[in-house]
Design brief:
Largest sheet of chain A: 2 strands, antiparallel
Helix content of chain B: 25-40%
Structural class of chain B: alpha/beta
Strand content of chain B: 25-35%
Shape of chain B: globular
Number of strands of chain A: 4
Shape of chain A: globular
Strand order of the largest sheet of chain A: 1-4
Oligomer: heterodimer
Number of strands of chain B: 12
Distance between the termini of chain A: 29 Å
Radius of gyration of chain A: 22 Å
């Protein structure tokens, strides 16, 4: 039996797209088909991001500088980490409102543990691991209350929101600001790779995409799993290469006073976690179960999936990602102060995931959505800042973008349903 | 037909508080036959299914599977014996595709990493062996399937795990005429493949289309077992609505026994 006839005697081409031409013409036809059927993927986000960059490039004088570009990366990384956690929570159809202040707890734990002269002073790397573990445990406890007691996650994490805010207030009102001197902790945001190292990293990340396409082609050989055509894989690899090498080129060009800049570690962490978490979501049993529980928890339970375990792990993951984000934010200012977490961290993180196409009702969305959403929000807020526009307007614009993205997504889902996807 | 029934329930009793849901109910399914279980609302059909599926524990009575007494404490015990239940509300995840649903909770993986190709091949073969041919691609999400196709996927999933007894709870309740026919055809085919099928239905037309024998429950008691070829819908309706409880030890295996005669 060949692999082509395993489906059944009347096997029709699975979807319309099988009849499309190959080559560049095929790419164009596929594009038209995708627009008609609402299968837009990441295209609106990327187009939106390019439009925003061009708009600010033309209007703001110091937006289009290498230094600001490095700033943009370091400002976005923290939000992005939280948004990654939000993706998994939303995939379950749950919400986690505690992550903003959990990020604060993560930063606070790290700051306390690295404090020179305190009796528990420890190495910065160890301190970060402890902080991440603490926040994962807190997330796990919140998740357990959701999973075992049956309290809605909105309420549990709203309580968490208040409790962890209270803990931070109590701690920092007496102490004031805690300065972070440990270089390992501060590196999470501001470690700058040498130009050569930057190029190597760009090459590695560019190579990851074709490797993942190849991996998928090998694993899914002879199956009907939707695959990249070679043309589209090559086009996308070139696009990713331009983005990666372009990023490094711009970063290497930056300077603060006379110190040359380069690719910041925070940017590398963003991409690294994107790769790891995408793998977790798409290629592991755990990821499959997360989608299943979000799609139909009762069906998942009847199929023998331990739904409570999945919920607890996802909330623990959300807590861990919040801690990582919090540490990056603390490293950015080398301290933890009462103003932590910065700005609308919680809402920005949720907005990033939702703008990235992750459904609030569970079961639909991808990790890359959080990355692209966080970059879009980060660019908007950075750009409006460089234009010296008031915070009020920044919130208004962010809100409008969120609304627009969700409206576009809703229409796309309706088109998909109509075309039978 | 083999002498030992595949599944034999003896004197199953179950009460919920003061409500007597099942009162010394006997029931059996042989391998290779479709045994229908009919009765009015509240007759105890669902409770009986739940006792077999392990969702409820019976208060008293014995369950024999392939002649051996078994104790079923949960869905996993039932699955281990080879008993699979297809529930009325299907229990499929709309956002996952056909393969992902077929392997839900039992994914093939190496070190937690999914192995898609074997799962897809086995899914395709199972659907083919059941002559489920209307599904265009096993990589379609279940949300895009029709009601009959969804039911077919749910049944195919139950069959795929080397199951011996498949319990179908109202499989055609939400389907149109053509799709109902498609599912009934599938049910008949399961019997022909040597599985025991327990078909719970309100719809006597469906029952007479597919079943070899028909057990009737009324108010939690046996009122009769009918050979489909030797009875009429009229007789079964009478048993459902006005049948007198039969007190028999074991199942009346002679044709047409019971109050319906």
């Amino acid at each position: 039996m060949t692999s082509a006839d395993v489906v059944g005697p009347d096997r029709a081409p699975p979807l319309e797209e099988e009849q499309l031409a190959t080559g560049l013409r095929g790419v164009w036809e596929r594009l038209k088909l995708n627009v008609r059927t609402g299968n837009l993927g990441a295209v609106p986000l990327i187009v939106g991001e390019i439009a925003v960059v061009i708009a600010f490039g033309l209007t703001a004088t110091n937006f289009f500088t290498s230094t600001n570009f490095v700033n943009l990366i370091t400002q976005t990384a923290g939000t992005c980490m939280l948004a990654y956690g939000v993706v998994f929570v939303l995939l379950l159809g749950e919400i986690d409102l505690s992550i903003g202040y959990l990020a604060g707890i993560g930063a606070l734990v790290v700051a306390e543990l690295q404090l020179p002269g305190s009796k528990w002073q420890m190495n910065g790397l160890l301190a970060m691991l402890v902080a991440i573990a603490v926040c994962a445990a807190i997330g796990g406890v919140q998740g357990s209350i959701v999973a075992f007691v049956g309290v809605p996650s909105f309420v549990v994490t709203l309580a968490g929101f208040l409790i962890w805010q209270g803990v931070i207030l109590n701690k920092l009102q007496q102490r004031g600001t805690i300065i972070i001197q440990d270089r390992w902790i501060n590196y999470t945001d501001l470690y700058i790779f040498s130009p050569a190292a930057g190029w190597v990293i760009a090459a590695i990340f560019t190579a990851l995409y074709p490797i993942s396409v190849l991996y998928k082609k090998i694993v899914a050989r002879g199956t009907q799993i939707a695959q990249q055509s070679w043309t589209s894989a090559i086009v996308k690899t070139i696009g990713i290469g331009i983005a990666a090498f372009g990023t490094v080129a711009v970063c290497n060009n930056g300077k603060i006073i006379e110190t040359p800049l380069g690719l910041p570690l925070a940017g590398v962490l963003m991409v690294l976690f994107f790769v790891l978490l995408t793998f977790l979501a798409k290629w592991t049993t755990f990821g499959r179960h997360v989608y299943a529980v979000g799609g139909n928890a009762e069906a998942a339970r009847r199929a023998g999936i331990n739904v409570a375990r999945i919920r607890v792990i996802v909330f623990a993951l959300s807590g861990a990602m919040a801690a990582i984000g919090g540490i990056i934010f603390a490293a950015q200012v080398n301290s933890v102060a009462l103003t932590f977490p910065p700005g609308n961290l919680l809402l920005n993180a949720i907005a990033a995931a939702v703008i990235g196409g992750v459904s609030l009702f569970g079961g639909r969305g991808e990790v890359r959505g959080a990355l692209l959403g966080a970059i879009l929000i980060g660019t908007l807020q950075n750009g409006l800042n460089t234009l010296s526009i008031s915070n009020g307007w920044i919130y208004i614009v962010t809100g409008l973008v969120l609304l627009g993205a969700v409206m576009l997504d809703t229409v796309a889902v309706r088109l998909q349903a109509r075309s039978g996807r | 037909m083999s002498d030992t029934p595949l599944l034999q329930l003896q004197r199953i009793t179950k009460t919920f508080g003061s409500v007597q849901a099942l009162d010394e109910v006997d029931f059996e399914v042989r391998a290779g036959e479709v045994m229908a279980l009919v009765g009015d609302n509240g007759a105890g059909k669902s409770t009986l299914v739940k006792c077999v599926a392990g969702t409820h524990a019976a208060d008293s009575g014995r369950i024999l599977f392939e002649g051996q007494e078994v104790h079923i404490h949960g869905p996993k015990d039932a699955a281990r014996l080879g008993i699979e239940v297809v529930y009325q509300d299907l229990a499929l995840c709309d956002n996952l595709d056909v393969v992902q649903n077929m392997y839900l909770g039992r994914e093939v993986s190496h070190a937690q990493i999914l192995s898609e190709a074997p799962m897809e091949h086995h899914t395709s073969e199972t659907l083919k062996s059941l002559a489920v041919t209307t599904i265009k691609s096993v990589r379609q999400t279940v949300a895009t399937l029709s009601g009959g196709q969804r039911q077919s996927v749910a049944v195919a999933r139950a069959v795929m795990w080397n199951s011996k007894l498949v319990i179908l709870d109202e499989p055609t309740a939400a389907l149109g005429v053509a799709q109902t026919e498609q599912v009934l055809e599938l049910v008949r085919r399961l019997g022909h493949q040597g599985l025991g099928v327990m078909l719970i239905s309100h719809n006597l037309h469906d029952v007479f289309e597919t079943a070899d024998r028909i057990s009737v429950l009324r108010l939690g008691r046996n009122v009769g077992v009918f050979e489909r070829r030797e009875t009429t819908q009229q007789a079964v309706v009478e048993a459902i609505t006005a049948g007198m409880p039969t007190k028999v030890s074991g199942i009346p295996s002679n044709a047409g026994a019971g109050a319906g005669e």
